[in-house]
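[Q] Does anyone have a clean structure-token version of this?
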Amino acid sequence: MTRIVFSAASGDLTVWIRELQALMPDAEVTAFDARAQSGADYAVVWAPPQELFEHERHLRAIFCLGAGVDALLAMPKRPRAVPLVRLGDAGMSVQMAEYVCHAVLRFTREFERYEADMRAGQWQLRKPLLREHFPIGVLGLGVIGARVARALSSFEFAVHGWSRTEHSLEGITCHHGADGLEKLLRATRILVCVLPLTPDTESILCRSNLEKLMPGAYLINVARGAHLVEDDLLALLLEGHLAGACLDVFREEPLPAGHAFWSETRITMTPHIAARTLRANSLAQIAGKIRDHQAGKPIDGIVDPARGY
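[A] Here you go.
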């Protein structure tokens, strides 16, 4: 019998286990317990303890309940010979596109200013801002980034996209490599980060890159907090080169009390909710991949540790 263990840093796994068990009635699905007998074939995890990999030494694959795998790759006890598999879309890309489009339109349509006017009892029209003055750059053109770029393009913004390797997306001006990043930044007033976190992309949202953006630029980070050099963002806001930012991710989560971001009115923040893992979609995908893996069929989403995704 195939054995599957679940492990997550927080939350009740009961429903997750019950629903995966229903999808795979011939398997045994349990929560990880270091006191129980080891021997699981597959692990389904989100921020698992190190002891899982010390205890479960016969894993055939590890499935991550999310699109980002940087934390798992950094775990020293993770068995390097065992495939690490990330979720594909699983309902995340449409959520991310919704979030980013909302942030872009809130900035370009000045909805925050209108809301402040209404609260102050002021009926005040503003001169419309022209979308051609707000070219958008999307860093990362994977499944999620491509969906975000296409959604923004549907509102008739000029959209540029950048990735490590060459991509082609209809209606999107695509760039790649170091030269491509330079071109994208200089052509962008609204910058959206949906990159995976790797040694090459950590701190990519730094002064030397952000100051290349067009004056009055706006930053949206929905990827990982470690992409952003926080002090550089604050300095560029103070200097006026950046008009504002919308941040869903942070280097330390929850964001500590007293952090400078709390008092910076030009920064809009949300608590890492831009795209939530959808249980039914995710479990159906994982069950299908486990069946294919058992049958010796190829599965997608296997992480290349050298690339970080």
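[Q] Thanks! Anything notable?
[A] The chain has two domains: 3-90+277-294, 92-269.
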